[in-house]
Amino acid sequence: MPSKFQLDKAAWQWAETTDPDNVTFDHVRTAYRLNLKPCPLGSCKRNCKGNPLCLNAIGERVWFGKIDDDDWHQIEDPNYERRDDDMFVGLKNLGATCYVNTFLQLWFHNPVIRNALYKFREPDEHVTRDVTAEWSPSSIGGHLQALFALLSLSERRYLDPKDFITHLGLDAGQQQDAQEFSNLFLTLLEDALSRQRDACVRNVIQNQFRGEYAYVTTCNRCGTKSERPSTFYELDLSIKGHKTLDESLKDFLQEEKLEGDNQYMCSSCNSKQNATRKIHLKYLPPVLNLQLLRFVFDKKTGMKKKLNSFIQFPEQIDMTKYLTVNNCAGDPAMPEGVEGNSVTYNLTAVLIHRGPTAYSGHYIAHIRDINSKNWYKFNDEEIEKMKGSKLQLGTEDDPEETGAKQKGRCPKGYHSSRNAYMLVYTLNEEAPCSTDSKAEAQQLLPAHVLDYVIKDNETFENWVSELMLIRDQNIESGKEKQEEIKETYQKLAFDKLEVNEGEWISQKWLNSWLTDPAKAEPIDNKPSLCKHDKLSPAAAMKLKFVNLNGSESLCNRYEGGQRLIGGDSLCMLCVQQQCHVIRTKIKMMEDDKLFGSMTKPNVISGPSYWVGKASFRSWKKMVLEQLGENDDDKRDSTDVEPSVENGLKEKESSGAKEEGQKEKENSITIDETLSKEEESFKFNEDILCEAHDRLDPDMTCRKLVPVEVWRRLKEYFANCPEFAKDDPVCGQCNDQMRNEQQTKEYLRKLAQEQKTALNDLLNDRKRPITLKKPIEVFILNKAFLEELRRFIKEPLKYTPIQNIGNSILICEHGGYLYPQSQGQLELYVNDNFVYTWSSEWDKISQMFNVDYEISIISYEDDDKNLGIVTLPQVCDECVVSRLNQEENARFDYDEAVIFVRKIPKQLQKSAGSSTLNPNESENSKDYDPDFNQHGSKKRGSTSDPLEEPPEKMSKNENGTRKSQRHRKVRGEKEVKVKSSQTLKDFKLQLMKLFSVPPFDQTLLMNGHSLCDDTATLGSLRIAPGSIIMLQADEPAEDLLVLQDMIQVSSGPESGFKGTGLLGNSERIS
C-alpha cells in the first residue's frame, strides 16, 4: 500500500488538469479514495490512514487473541476471604479499633480464658427458645463467647466485630488508651462471670491474671513494719531512664524514703518518723501482664506523651529474685496451684504501638501459639506466621531511625523494642498440654452458639457461591460477546468493493466500539457532514467505508443520526469546489513567483499602483477566504493536494519577504498586529484613511507595484480600492498628519530641554544633604518629579507637566508639615518630597507653575552661630497630628512581611542584649551569611553611604542615614501577617515554620518579650519589616506530634465516658 502522502496526492491530482464543470462521478470516487483496493483482514500491521477500505489495526486484535477469564469480570476470587488451613482468623478494623482487636486476639489465645468463655452460660439459658428465631448475644459474656466461637470455627479469613463494639458503646472512629480499655473490660468481664455456676468460669480472670503484693513500711526508729496487702492484674513498669526490663522491675520494687513533709505516722512511736516503703511481691499469677508505661502525662503540655526509648526484654525470665522470701518457710511465694519452685516465665505476647504520639498510630500484637510454639503477628485482618520459632519484631520498630534513638545489639535470648507497650509472660510448666481449639469449641459451646456459627458459615458459603456463579456467568457472556464482535467485525470488510453496498462510519467510533462495546455511544456522523448534508471530502479520511452486512447490526444496536450509505453520501458540489480551490492555488503559485520578480525596487518602471503592505503580505490568505476555506466546511491542510499546499507554504511571496527585510526594525510589531488587522479589512482597504475612505497620506502603510501585478491582483479582488501612482492623497488627513508631526517634534524638544535643565535632579545626583553651611534649599513634591521623569522618558505617551502641587506639604493653616528636628543639620528625608538647589528652583519656577514655594534657609548670625528658618513657618499642631496618623498607619496592615530569627541553641544561655537586639545583630558576624571571613567588609557594600540611591536609604530620628535593604541571616524566615491577628495565631504560624510548639516559644522584639497571646500584632506595635527573635525553650517535637497536639487541644479528652465500659449501657451485664 502506498504511503498516506502518496494516496493524498493521487486523490486530487486529477484536479490540476480538470475544469470544475467537467468533474465526473469517477473523479468523486477518487477524491473519496473509493478507487483503492480493500486491504485483506490481517494483512496490515498498521492501519492505512489514507485508505478508507483498510480495517486493520483499529482495535480488533485483542478480540482475536486469547482473553483471560478474569478479564470478563471485576470480582475478586471470594475464596480469598476463606480461612487458610492451620491459620487463625483476623478481626476487621472498623476505623480506629485496632487497640481492641489486639486484646481480643491476646485473650483468645489464652486457652484457659478461651475454654472458660466456651463454658459461659447466659442467665436465661434454661428458658425454652423459639427454634424459628435467630439467636443473638445480649450480654458482654455472650458477645465475647460468640466472638471466640467464630474465631475458632469460622470459615472466614477475618471477622467483623461490629456487634461487639456496638454493644460496648465504643466510638469506632476514635482511638483510645489501650491499657485503660484492657483494665475496664477485664473488670466488666470479671463482674459478668461472677454470676456463673461453674467455678472455673466464675474465677478465671482472678486465677489467670491476679497476683498479690504488699506495701511494707518500716519505721527507721523502732523498726516496726506495717503491711498493706493489695492485688494486681498487671504490673505498671516505668521505662523512663531504663534500658532493660530488669531495670524497670527493680525500679518498681525500689525502696522509697519517707522523710520531711512525707514522714510516716508510726503507731508504735505514736509520732511521725522517717521511714522506708517498699513493694513486696507475694504471689504471681500464671499469666503475668507487664505494662510498659510508654504513654505518660506531660504536666507542661497537659497531654499524654509517648516515650520512644528502646527497652530490652528476655524471652524467658526467672522471677525468683523479685519475689519476697516467706518469713516462715524461707521460700519464695509460688503462684496458686503450682508445684515445686518453678517461677520461670516464657514470653508469649508482645503488644506494639506504631506511631509517634499517644493520639495516633496503629496497634498490632505478636502472640506465641501454645500448640505449635510458633509466633504470629496479628495486624487486624492480616495474620502472618513468623518464620522459624523465634519472635521477629521485623519493621515494627522503625529500623530506619538513626542516631541516638537507634537500638543497640541484643544478647541472645533477648529482644529490644521502642514501640512495645505490653509484655505477656506465661508460667513455664514442665508438661504443657496442647489443646485443640476447634475440638474444645465443639465440645464446650452451647448448642445455640454452635448453630449461630454454623449459620454464619452457611451465609459465608452462600456468599462465595453467589459470587462464583456471577463470575462464571460473566465469563460465559464475555466469551459469547467475543464471538459476536469477531463475527460483526469480519462482516464489515469488503471482498470486492461495491460503492452502493457500503456505509461510512467514524474510525474513532469503531475504535471505541472495539475498545469497550458496552460503553460505545450512538453513531454520530454530524461532525463529518458538509453544508450540503453529505459527507465532506475533508472529513472522509477520519471515517471508514464498511460493508452494509456488518454496519446494519451496529446501527440497529447503537442507533445514531443520519447514515452515510453508498454513492448518495458523496458530495459532487464539494468536490467541484475543492477542484476550483486547487486550480486557483496553482495559479496563485505562478502569480506569487511573478510578484516576487516584478516588485523589486529596481524593476518597477512605468505605470504603477498603490497596494497596502498588509494586503500584499496576506493576499493569498484573502484569496482562500474568498474561496470559502475558512467557513464551517474548512478542511485540514493534509487533505489538500500536497504539492500545491506545500508549494504555497514554502514559497512565500518574495516581495513580502524583501519588504520585511527593509522594515526589520518594525517587523515584530507589524507581525503581531497585522494578524489581527488582516481579519478586519478586505484587500487594499488598509491604504484608505479611516475618516474619509481616501488614499491615506501615510506612505509607510503602502507600496507601489507594476501594472501587470495589479492586473493579476484585480483578477482575484475585482472590487478592491484602486489608486494609481499619481492619484492625490486625502487632503484633510494630510493636513492633520502634518499638525501631529509638528506636535510630536515640539514634545520631543520640550522633553529634551527639561532633561538638560534638570539633569542632576532627574538622575538624583549631587543632592543637598546637609545644612552645615549657610545655604537655601527648596522643597519639591516628589510626585511631580516622578511624573516629569515619565514624560521625559516617553514624551509622546504622557502629557507634559505644567503645574507643581506643593499643597500636600502644607497644612490647612498654611504651615509646613515636615520640619527639621531641633538642632538637626542633616536634611530630613521623606518619601513625599525632594530637595533642590536654588539654581534648580529658578529653572523650575520659570518652566512650571508653582502653587507654594517652600524653602529651608541656614544662616550665620553676628556671632557666627548657625540658624535654620523654614518658609513658610512650621505648624507645630498639624505636625503632631501628621506624625500620629503616620504612626497609627504603620500598625494597620492587611498583608505585610515580618522577619523571625530563631536563636541558635548554643547562644541561648549566653544571649545578651546584642543577640536579642536585631538592630545590633544586623551587622553581626555570627548571623550574617555574607560576612567575609578574610576582611571586615560585607560583600556588596559601598565605601560611601551618601552614594546610595535615596530609595534604598532612610534616616533615623537623629538624622543618621541607614540602609533599608534587609539582609537575610541564618535561621531567619519571612512571615506574612495581618495587624488584626493575635499573637497566639502568629505563634501557630511559627510552629509550622520552626517546629516549635507555642508554649515553648519566647518571642522578643527590640529586647522586650511579647507575652500577651490575646493581643493583636498591631496593638503590640509590630510594624511591617520588624525583626522578631524566637527562642525555643525545648527541642522541637516531631511535626506529627505537633499536629496531634493541635487536634487534641481542640476539645477535652472524654476517654471511655459514655461507653458500656463505665456501666452506661443497659445491655452490658
From TrEMBL:
Gene3D superfamilies xref list: Cysteine proteinases, Phosphatidylinositol 3-kinase Catalytic Subunit, Chain A, domain 1
Signal peptide: none
Record's catalysed reaction(s): Thiol-dependent hydrolysis of ester, thioester, amide, peptide and isopeptide bonds formed by the C-terminal Gly of ubiquitin (a 76-residue protein attached to proteins as an intracellular targeting signal)
Domain Ubiquitin-like: from-to ranges: 974-1037
GO terms assigned for molecular function: cysteine-type deubiquitinase activity; cysteine-type endopeptidase activity
GO cellular component: cytosol; nucleus
UniProt feature, compositional bias: Polar residues: 909-921
Pfam families per UniProt: ubiquitin, UCH
Location of the USP domain: 89-428
Domain of life: Eukaryota
Location of this chain's protein in the cell: Cytoplasm; Nucleus
Leading EC class: hydrolase
GO biological process, one term: protein deubiquitination
Entry's EC annotation: 3.4.19.12
Composition bias, Basic and acidic residues: 647-666, 949-960
Keywords in alphabetical order: Cytoplasm, Hydrolase, Nucleus, Protease, Repeat, Thiol protease, Ubl conjugation pathway
InterPro entries in alphabetical order: Papain-like_cys_pep_sf, Pep_USP48, Peptidase_C19, Peptidase_C19_UCH, Ubiquitin-like_dom, Ubiquitin-like_domsf, Ubiquitin_CS, Ubl_USP48
Keyword Coiled coil attached: no
Family listed: Belongs to the peptidase C19 family.
Name of the molecule in the record: Ubiquitin carboxyl-terminal hydrolase 48
The organism of origin for this protein: Mytilus coruscus (Sea mussel)
